[in-house]
Design brief:
377 residues, alpha+beta, Mago nashi protein, 4-stranded antiparallel β-sheet
Length: 377
């Protein structure tokens, strides 16, 4: 009886264990299914939340998205919640205008990392170009993507100009940007750019003036209407360099109150750095940076009248408009001297190789400064 009882009891225990295992497995499956369902729901909810917030979790920074939505809402007079970012991708814009220059706007040729963003209200789409943090943004177009040209430049002209610029600069077309295009009427058949000893027809010819931007240079082209005739305006191309912003980390300290102007020169064959300052009292002090014994210090003077004339030159030729701009040397250049000029209103940087290609006003300021240095006694 005891044996039978034990056997029966064992069978019941075994049966209970088996049933418990089955239930556990079933329960486990239910848990897995529930977990899977929860995961799917979470993914869906997350996706919906992404769409609602107009941000993909691992890419577009929230400040950039908010800046774009606020700008478009203001332009359209609607609420931001009526707008949705439907697409975006990272871009590196080839100029400071984010490849969307305004008419007659000068664009620095700095490479600007940022975003291309498409916003929709369900009826229309808008395309934005921004920098990395959204503090700089521009509306490209509504409804359809734009080719980003400031004028309706014919494709044949665009292609002809880009091919000419690519050949001249030895750069791929992908590294070039048309930053300005305007219709022109040329005074002769040579597109107003006659070559030496060339006979040009006196017929008035219509066409285009196109400005092409590269990383460190701009080229100005004259064309006819179709692009079958293209000529480089060398004088206009060489008259200015495309500046870039001086990184904040490379800006020198501001001037003390008693200093009118400062020049820091560095590089060249010697690689030495010199600082020259003009004080209000007419003293011109030059030292070599890193000279522990101060053995190369020199102190000279100019008259109070010369100081006043120089200050007026800074104001007259608007030195402040070049604030924090750098005019870089051509690609591949070596052993050049970099000059950093600072007034009470700002800093500009250039080099001896490109000095003759600086904007005219800046060249005039540089000339006035050199005259101060030469005349000091």
């Amino acid at each position: 009886m005891l044996k039978k009882y034990l056997n029966n009891n064992q069978r019941r225990i075994l049966t209970a264990l088996i049933l418990t295992g089955i239930l556990s497995v079933a329960s486990g499956l239910t848990v897995v299914q529930n977990a899977t369902g929860a995961s799917a729901n979470l993914s869906l909810e997350t996706s919906n939340e992404v769409i609602k917030d107009n941000i993909k979790l691992n890419r577009l920074p929230r400040p950039v998205a908010k800046a774009v939505l606020r700008d478009l809402a203001r332009r359209q007079g609607i609420l931001t919640r009526q707008l949705q970012i439907i697409d975006y991708n990272q871009q590196t814009w080839r100029n400071g205008c984010l490849e969307l220059p305004q008419p007659d706007e000068f664009c620095s040729q700095a490479l600007i990392p940022g975003w291309r963003i498409v916003v929709s209200d369900g009826k229309e789409n808008w395309i934005y170009h921004t920098n990395n943090n959204g503090r700089s943004l521009r509306l490209a177009s509504a409804k359809n993507p734009s080719d980003n040209l400031p004028a309706k430049l014919p494709p044949s002209v665009k292609n002809a100009v880009l091919q000419a610029a690519s050949k001249r600069l030895q750069q791929p077309i992908s590294q070039l940007t048309i930053i300005q295009a305007e219709q022109q009427t040329w005074s002769n058949g040579c597109l107003s750019l006659p070559r030496p000893d060339e006979n040009c027809t006196e017929a008035i010819d219509s066409g285009w003036r196109v400005v092409v931007g590269a990383v460190d240079q701009t080229l100005v082209y004259h064309t006819n209407q179709t692009g079958s005739a293209v000529r480089l305006n060398e004088k206009a191309s060489n008259s200015t360099l495309s500046p870039v912003q001086i990184p904040a980390s490379e800006l020198p300290p501001p001037l003390d109150r008693d200093i009118v102007f400062r020049q820091i020169s560095s590089g060249g064959f010697t690689g030495r750095t010199y600082e020259t300052v003009l004080l209000k009292d007419g003293r011109l002090i030059r030292v070599r940076i890193g000279d522990a014994n101060d053995s190369e210090r020199s102190v000279r003077r100019v008259s109070a009248q010369q100081v006043q004339q120089f200050v007026r030159s800074l104001e007259r030729f608007k030195f402040s408009k070049f604030q924090n701009l750098s005019y870089p040397a051509p690609s591949g250049a070596a052993d050049y001297i970099t000059y950093t000029l600072t007034s009470q209103e700002g800093t500009v940087r250039y080099n001896d190789i490109s000095q003759n290609n600086l904007p005219k006003n800046l060249q005039t300021v540089v000339k006035a400064w050199n005259q101060i240095v030469v005349s000091a006694q």
